[in-house]
Amino acid sequence: MMPELGKYAGAVLASYGVGLGLVVALVGASLWRGAKVRRLLREVEYRQGRTNG
Amino acid sequence: MSIWEYANPKKFMQTSGWLLPWVSALAAVCLMVGLGWGFFLTPDDYRQGSTVKIIYLHVPAAMMAINAWVMMLVASLIWLVRRHHVSALAAKAAAPIGLTMTLIALVTGALWGQPMWGTWWVWDPRLTSFLILGLFYLGYIALWGAVEDPDTAADLTGVLCIVGSVFAVLSRYAVNFWSQGLHQGASLSLDKEENVADVFYLPLLICIAGFVLLFVALVLLRTRTEIRARRVQALLARERMA
Q: Could you tell me the pTM of the whole model?
């Protein structure tokens, strides 16, 4: 299944490794921060809702 | 119905919440099909060998690095003229995506350049303007982090975005402005002689569509996060005042 990349295999595989790695890291970081802020907002809204009665 | 309705954070959250799963799924499908097709099913180029497969990452990432800055410019202008907070937050949300795209374009370009040009880097007009664009992204992100008042930060970064647009334009058209340097012209062209070979064309188009959709999905996701973060700040400020 793996294509024959010949003498340029290192360059091609490194490109895909770095490129996809950076995309995955960006998506992961965006999801992680999104979840963190959503949780924080829920906590603050809950706390203020309780305080306000 | 007007586009300015989406300047209302509540309306933006409603619409983006509905849109986000669809755009994300479509981006994932396009990227898997385009990159899978390009990597596994296209032949080697008669001159570049297997390094031609790098085009499926390099070209879409480079396009999005420039287009992300253009989107930030439009959003910043809307903020500066009409003072819509969602547009300022969308520009802020897009910057790390643009920086990542710039990094991918620079790294994959260097990895392609070493075997093809015999060098990782050369101070070619397009490469140099792209590097400066990357530095502008870093400066833009740092400026948002350095200024405490969000409206002032949006004003200052908006101005920086306008200045940096020069390099976004140069990154795209440097090859045409100065007929020198190693970097070749556009890979996609209406001129059949200049366009990439047919066998590489369709998977490349699908990869570009995938990167555009990925960008849209991430901007929506990150803007939603910025709106929530702004609300947290407002609620905590109210708590401190009470």
A: 0.92
The average confidence (pLDDT) of chain B is 90
Q: Does B225 touch chain A (CB under 8 A)?
A: yes
Question: What's the rounded Cα separation, in Å, for the pair B173 and B29?
Answer: 31
List helix spans (H) across chain A: 9-52
Phi then psi for residue B49, to 5 deg, are 65, -145
> What ipTM did this prediction achieve?
0.92
B176-204: per-residue pLDDT in tens? 666 666 676 666 665 666 667 788 889 99
Model confidence at B238, pLDDT cuts 50, 70, 90, reads confident
Which candidate, B83, B84, B79, places its Cα nearest to that of B7?
Answer: B84
CA distance B175 to chain A (A): 23
Q: Check CB contact of B227 with chain A, cutoff 8 Å.
A: no
Shortest distance between the Cα of A30 and any Cα of chain B, in A, equals 6
Q: Look up residue A49 and give its two tokens.
A: 């809702």
Q: What are residue A20's phi and psi, to 5 degrees?
A: -70, -35
